[in-house]
Every structure is written in structure tokens, then in C-alpha cells.
């Protein structure tokens, strides 16, 4: 059996050693040195790196004990491409980076101008628009517009995947009034969801019904068909899904709660801000996001949209608020969260030391990529759970921070659903009670167990 590949950094060829010495960031250097070690052992010099060499390298990585090999390989390719584009003397060969998205959306510039115009008019409809006034359809939140635009493009992508001529799409009406288009969309969603209920597909069908009913005034036959599709995809759970309940149970252990709350401070404590690197900037960014979510359990879209000047209101060095106006919030209610001192200090460190390393051009976005672009909710939604998993071994997605906030509050103050409603910005207390009664019950059962256990002899209690 072949021995798994292990990097041997001391055995680099002179050419590879020279290349690695040019890489300043320690994380980038780690990816490149692993590749350099493999290529040195195989007699492949830097200028001869190509797809064949990378395929062999990938096979060796997958056969090794390297954790998360797919992500490591992808990061190595991306690091190489970035160095090839920015570092003088680096081989200019660009490596292919596979698009891992299951269904990448059609780009807007690939659609007819009339369709784009109709879509933007739909997204920017307001209470001044007549027909939406009676329906109380006011100005939509910026985050909601972005999400709705993405959903529409995903629907169009489903048609494109089946060979639909996109040049025939003159407006949103072509998504809902053509029975063949609806059949393709429904079949794609049903097959993609393995014929099961799916919240994402349910929301897409709801969007189609909104377009059909209020934008193009479709007939009752179309509306009824869309209602049936809604019923098919609607999840029947009355609260948290079983998966989310299982993840929340991790925090029935107080030790896990303490580890999560201390994570931002513990991670930053290990860094040396006098010698910051790009890789560390991403780590601090992740730590800051976790710290913010623990203090202000906002939705992922609001987190990603944070603007330093618009949303962060400094009162003093030790007094700071995270503020979102109503038109940028899903439920159209102003949000205002005071940030604890630990979060403020971490924010100041990020802004002063680490964020400047990521800046490619002037921007007020808080969370930016290595190219200086504002990160999307999806990007943060992948980055932050990976950060928590790597450091704590705990599964926690962005939206689960909201459920965690409810769990922690109800753990301390059982039955205070109204406070949880305000904390999470639910419009109706019924939503709060429906989702979090189960969390309240967990603590009730634990307290009952304590009562029963109190009657046991001391030795059995301790055993």
C-alpha cells in the first residue's frame, strides 16, 4: 500500500524555495509550500505546474490524513491564481477553480432588457404604486430585494437548464402564465428536493404566486395551481426542525455555551497584532461576526450588509450601537442593539489593524473579502460556521444564533416569550411561541428531573 503523502518542507528544490520565500502571508505560504513539497518530490518545477500536476497533487492530498481535503485543494488553487495575478515573477498559469454551487444562477446581463426592467420594477414597487397600496405592500427592505432578485434568477436558471430560450422572456409574466414554464420549474424543484417538503422551494413558489396574483393578475386556474404547489412544499413542523433542535441541544451543556461566548476573545488573544497577516484578518473578521451575533442576533442578510457609517453608531469609546432602519429589516421595524464592551474592543481592533489588510479600494462595508468586496450573506454563512467548527467542533449556522438567543433567554427566564419576540423582532408573539415552546419545555423537564432527583439518597444522586 502506498504511504500517504506528507509534506516535507525541508526538501524543496531551489526554484520552489525561492517561490515560497516570496509569499508573505503565512496562510497562503502554507498552501503553496504543501504544493511545493509535492512538486519537488515529483520533479515538477514552478513553471511546469499545470492541470495534470494539480490532479496528481489532489489525489495525494485525498489519500493523506489532511482534514477537509476538498476545501484545502480549492484554497490551494485560489491562492495560486491570486499570486499569479499579483506577485511579480510568479508563473502566470491560472488554475481552474470549480464552481461548487449546485445551481449557479443565470447572470442578469444574459436576459432580455425588458425582463430585467420588469423585475426591477417589481422589486422597487412601493406604496405609491397604486395597486400595491391597498395590499399594504410598502417599500421593500434592501436585503429583501437582493434575496427576491436572487430567487427570480434561480427560477430562470431552472428554465435555462432545460434548454429554454431565455431571449423569449419578455417579463415576469412568462414565468407564471406559460404552463410549460411552470411545469419545468415545479418538476425541477420537486426532483431537487427529492419529492419532499422544502422551505426554500416553498418560498420560491410563494414568490411566484405573489407575481401571479399582484403583478400580472393571473387567472384563478394559475393561482390554484400555485396554491397546490405551496401546500406540497410547505413544511408541516410547528416549531424548530429536528435538525435545529439537535444543534440547539449542544448548548444544554453549559460548557459549550461558555466556549462559544469566549471564542472571539480566545482566538484573538493568540494573534500578534503587531505583525498582522491576511489570513489572520479573516480569522478576526469571523471572531467579530460571532461576537456581534451573540450580542445582536440579526438575520444573515443584515449582518452581511453592515455599513460602518450607516449602521454602527458610536456614542463614546465604550458605548456603541448596531442600528438598522425599518426599510432594511424584514419585518419593517427599526432595530437597535447595544454592543458589549468586548465586542466594541474587537471591532476597534479589526478596523484599526486587520480590515486595512483586506481593502483594495475605499468602502464602508464592515465584512469584506480579500479583494476588498463586501461579502454576501451566503459567503458569511459558509465562513462563520466553518470558523466555529474548526475551533470548537460545534455545528452552528448563522440563523441558529437567533434560536440560540431564544434558548439562552428562556433558559434563564422561562415563559418570557414577549421579551424573546422583541429580541428577535418577530411581528407576532404567536410566531415566537410556536417556535420556542419546545425550548421552554426542555428546561421545564430538566427542572422536574431535579425535583425527582432531590428525593433520592445523596449517594445515588451523586452517582
Overall radius of gyration: 26 Å
N- and C-termini, Cα separation:
48 Å
| CATH-defined fold name of the largest domain | hpI Integrase, Chain A
Low-pLDDT segments, ≥5 res:
1-5, 126-139
Instruction: Please write the CATH class name of the largest domain.
Output: Mainly Alpha
Task: Give a description of the structure.
Strands 1-2-3 form a three-stranded antiparallel beta sheet. The protein has helices spanning 14-21, 26-42, 51-63, 69-86, 113-123, 142-161, 173-176, 179-192, 199-215, 220-233, 242-249, 254-269, 278-295, 300-304, 308-311, 341-358, 377-392, 400-412, 417-424, 429-453, 458-462, and strands at 312-316, 319-324, 335-338. A hairpin with a 2-residue loop joins strand 1 (312-316) and strand 2. The chain has three domains: 9-86; 108-233; 243-410, hpI Integrase, Chain A (Orthogonal Bundle), CATH 1.10.443.10. It is mainly alpha-helical.
Protein traits:
mainly alpha; hpI Integrase, Chain A; 3 domains
Short description:
Helix content is 59%, strand content 3%. With 463 residues, it is mainly alpha-helical. It has 3 domains: 9-86; 108-233; 243-410, Intergrase catalytic core (hpI Integrase, Chain A, Orthogonal Bundle), CATH 1.10.443.
Topology:
Elements (H helix, E strand, L loop, with lengths): L13 H8 L4 H17 L8 H13 L5 H18 L26 H11 L18 H20 L11 H4 L2 H14 L6 H17 L4 H14 L8 H8 L4 H16 L8 H18 L4 H5 L3 H4 E5 L2 E6 L10 E4 L2 H18 L18 H16 L7 H13 L4 H8 L4 H25 L4 H5 L1
Antiparallel strand pairs: 1-2, 2-3
